[in-house]
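Researcher: Good morning. I'm working through a list of sequences from a screen, and I'd like to move beyond sequence-only analysis. For each chain I'm collecting a predicted structure so we can compare shapes side by side. This is the next one on the list. No need for commentary yet; just the structure.
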Amino acid sequence: MNQQILALVLIIFLLARLLWQKKRKKIQGGEFVFWLIFWSFSGLAIVFIKYIDSLVSRLGFSSQGIDVLLYLGVVFLFYLIFKIRLRQEKLDQDITKITRAISLKDKK
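Model: Good morning. Structure tokens for this chain:
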């Protein structure tokens, strides 16, 4: 129970930071909505962890619900890393194109 309370306090803090970042216009609307939904679902998962435990056991998994949530979280993080890597590669290509264009323009 103490871990749930601590986790909920942390999520409330992160939601407050998210709202503060939105107010200061540090993040865009789509990103704000994404993280708001993510942290809200995280809070709901913590509140309803007992139900998740029973669902996981009915599905035939031998682990607890928190373990399944942790595994899903790791998969989600790897997905985000993959998306960031793709975006970084696209930026690298765009910078290369711009640099070439400027270089060719300077030679003329």
